[in-house]
Amino acid sequence: MSTLKIKNLYKHFDGIKAVDRLTLSFEAGKITGLIGPNGSGKSTLINLLTGVVPFDSGIVIVAETTKLSKIRPYEVASFDITRTFQDVRLFEQMPVMDNILVVLTKRSVTGSLFERHKKYHLEKAKEVLEKVGLWEKKDELAANLSYGQRKLLEIARALAMNAETYLFDEPFAGLFPEMIKIVSSVLKELRDKGKTVVLVEHNMELIRELSDYCIVMDSGELLAEGKPSDVLSQKVVMEAYLGE
Amino acid sequence: MSLIPQLILNSLIAGSIYSLVALGFNLIYGTKRFFNLSHGAVAIIGGYIAFYFTKSLGVGIIVSSIIGILAAGILGYLLDRFVFRKLRQRKASDMVFLITSLGLMIVLQAVTALLFTNDFQIFSSQFTSYQIFGGVITQVQIIIIVSVIVISTGLFLLLKKTRFGKMVRAISDDEEVSKIVGIDTNKVIGWVFFIGSAIAGLSGILSGLDIGLEPTMGLSLLFKGVIAAVIGGVGNVYGGILGAFLLAFVENFGIWGISSEWKDVISFGLLIVFLLFRPQGILKK
Amino acid sequence: MEYLLHLAIVISIYSILGLSLNLIVGYTGLVSMTQAAFYAIGAYATAIAMTSYDINFFLAILIGIIISGLCALIIGYVLSRFDGDYFTLGSLGFNIIITAILVNWRGFTGGATGIPAIPRPSLFGFDLSTNLTFFILALLAVVVIYFICKFIVRSSFGRVLKAIREDEKAIQVFGYNTHYYKLAIFAIGAMMAAVAGALYASYLSYISPATFDLNESVFILSIVVLGGLANNKGAIWGAALLILLPEALQFVGFPSAVAEELRQVIYGLAIVLFMLYRPQGLVGEYKL
């Protein structure tokens, strides 16, 4: 079943078509690799799907039933969608623990005003932080973490959301091998639990290893899709990358 | 009834002064996008220095004005050189720039008040007036309108036709890339501050000649200039001129029938309308 | 002794103002230049309630708080659509509007001449009019508001405010409608400022629009910046510092007319120097 589908999605910036009438779907229980040369529109697509950037036309369909012609960023969580950011957007002057707690606690103004985090919030935070190996750093300010640790925190934050659809934007970039292992197992675990995992990535090794399905974009359009081994051997795909 | 022509003339004059403030502000804003609260204070200081030279030292008004303009330009350059450049170097956030400019504004305003007292100062008013289309216009006011035409043309030529202008536009697009390409961004931005502040100084002098000077005027003058820039389209240098005249006309015709103390409220209302419905302004970048 | 009490009362009033603005600027990252407007609303509401309608001080404060809160919701609704510099610009404009209204609505607010003869508080016949009792009242207000600020900051709500300050778009993606949060804290800050206004009105027994103009908002902002953003105690230190400074200057021998400008030079310079070399202020935890 597809938790996230797009039909004819269109977005242009100053005349450049960043996403050009794109129609795709992302399936549950699969890791879908989203690849393409620089500027193909992958990150823009993720931004459109999470309301960070508004799209000009087209429809986004969530869980096969909800049709959206507009996405506001604060609605995204209610559709059980979450993401990481390529350029790591953490809450810098807050400790690691708070970065996680803030996505666990009540969303309403009055609700959050009278809430101090409870035991189960702390337990859930511990769970995700331990999974990425950041529990010891829980009181450290996010700004003081190393680059790799920051990327891991991004992932922990997304995990804490307990969503159905996870959009990872280049989560492996700049990571050491040990951290790559951690992130890989996180993605696989999500997939095995039946979640929809979308992985935007440049590293072809990882794509081959991790993705069950592959979507290739170029200049905002869909270039190819299918099993990774098939897609990655197609001539058009190689040409697109060589051309970049 | 010569009210309408008079209102039109008043609008043209106010619009011209606001244009100058907007031009100076936009020029600097292009290189570093932050709400520079000290810009208004620099403008008023230009006015005070010209005032000092002509009133206390007896120097001719034209020479005094040139001194005032240069002084304002130098002041702006110094503020950039010793304060803003440091902040740029450590990539400080917009909030830091804003608050720093606030501190500078406070200091400049207070020093001005210490040197010249808080009283309202009026330049010598021996200017001849003329009658045009039923309205009255003074020599000063003609100079004001002419200045805008001269300055905006000059700025246009500078930005479009000279190498310096190219560098300014490059920095405006992307400071990092400009550095990589080899542009000495600090030097260029320093000059931009000088020119922008000099224009501000001119607006302060003209404003002083038209209504008078008071140390706290800087912020409201800046406020009008910024509103003009926003309405016209922030980032578009000439949009500020369009916005300035639109603002001036709405202000002057808007208070027809109600007390002139509501002028600021009207200008602010116009700002809010634009920010809510067309935040990018009238003209595109 | 009377003089010290006077200073203590003034510091208390400005501490409340500093605490209120700190929630908005220091914790939520919204540089607001209109806090004086809410200070004014509190002052005027109290003054009018007490002089024209003979309402008890404590009830009048409540009225001031409510009106201030409502105005903040309206003003905040417009402002929360903007961020960064535009928010500041817009807030500046609102201060100008409120001042203009205070000056022009002569029938109600007494116009530029203001409202005189505002009485001191009284409760069940107990007269609280001495400076000493007034100081105790003001101190109590500071303590209560300090603890309210502490409570807010420590709650989940406070954590969200900080996240908004750090990266508003990011926290939105995680399910928060930040408009409501910004609106809420803006209103809370406004209501606290109104308390300061009420105290001011009753203490001085006379108010006029000139006290509450843009310069006052700038002054309150300076208290918060110098004391240290996102530190409640810092707001109180900042208030103490800025109020005592001209007194110290006068003590050293500067005439009072000059002392005012000199104070501004000093704290303006301090702001610039702090931003350049110590952005966290005196005791702040938020390093800009």
Can you put this structure into words, describing what you see?
The complex is a heterotrimer of chains A (244), B (285) and C (288). Chain A contains nine helices and ten strands. Chain A is α/β, with parallel strands linked by helices and 244 residues long. In chain A, the strands form two sheets. A six-stranded mixed beta sheet of chain A has the order 6-7-8-3-9-10, sandwiched between helices. The longest helix of chain A is centred in the last third of the chain and has 16 residues. The mean pLDDT of chain A is 91. Chain B has a domain of 193 residues. In chain B, strand 1 and strand 2 form a beta hairpin. The radius of gyration of chain B is 18 Å and the shape is globular. The model of chain B has no long low-confidence stretch (mean pLDDT 86). Chain C has eleven helices and two strands; from the N terminus they run αααααββαααααα. The model of chain C has no long low-confidence stretch (mean pLDDT 89). The interface between A and C is medium-sized, with 35 and 28 residues.
> Helix content range of the residues of chain B, please?
over 70%
Q: Mean pLDDT score of chain A, rounded?
A: 91
Shape type of chain B: globular
- How many DSSP helices of chain B? 11
What average pLDDT do the residues of chain B reach?
86
* DSSP strand content of chain B: under 5%
Largest sheet report of chain B: 2 strands, antiparallel
Stretches of chain B where pLDDT falls below 50 for ≥5 residues? none
* Structure classification of chain A: alpha/beta
* Overall geometric form of chain A: globular
Low-confidence stretches of chain A: none
What is the count of helical runs of chain A? 9
Oligomeric state of the chains present here = heterotrimer
Order of helices and strands of chain A: EEEHEEEHHHHEHEHEEHH
Q: List the strand order in the largest sheet of chain A.
A: 6-7-8-3-9-10
Q: Please provide the count of β strands of chain B.
A: 2
Helix fraction of chain A, binned, reads 25-40%
Most extensive interface between two protein chains, with residue counts: B-C, 43 and 40 residues
Rg of chain A to the nearest angstrom? 18 Å
